[in-house]
Design goal:
Length: 115
């Protein structure tokens, strides 16, 4: 990962460094999040942004530090890239770091989704 002042970035396939977690806002990717929406005739996948707060307890247990960072999980921006229903990615590093109660989902246009 990389930290630039109040912002940091890490891909999400490996654990980030302590320095990355001490930024105010953390950007990550890897999962290509989508939300599955039931529509008449089937399911629709909506690529989405996911926002959450780091879990103070999880971060302190894993790293021995305190952090109140916000985490932004980036969507895939290419229509040809598959996605995963982010609510089912519980084994990912993203979920091992965030407070699940703080999860918020947004369409690519910024409209909050209520999955």
């Amino acid at each position: 990962g990389l930290r630039l002042g109040d912002y940091s970035f890490f891909h999400g396939h490996a654990w980030p460094s302590k320095d990355v977690l001490q930024a105010k806002v953390i950007f990550t990717a890897h999962l290509h999040p989508v939300v599955l929406v039931k529509r008449k005739g089937g399911l629709m996948q909506l690529r989405c942004w996911v926002m959450a707060k780091l879990s103070k307890d999880k971060v302190e247990e894993k790293y021995g530090i305190k952090s109140k960072a916000k985490v932004i999980l980036l969507p895939a921006f290419n229509n040809l890239v598959a996605g995963i229903d982010v609510r089912e990615a519980k084994d990912s590093i993203f979920f091992k770091l965030v407070d699940e109660k703080s999860l918020r989902f947004y369409s690519l246009e910024g409209v909050e989704l209520k999955p």
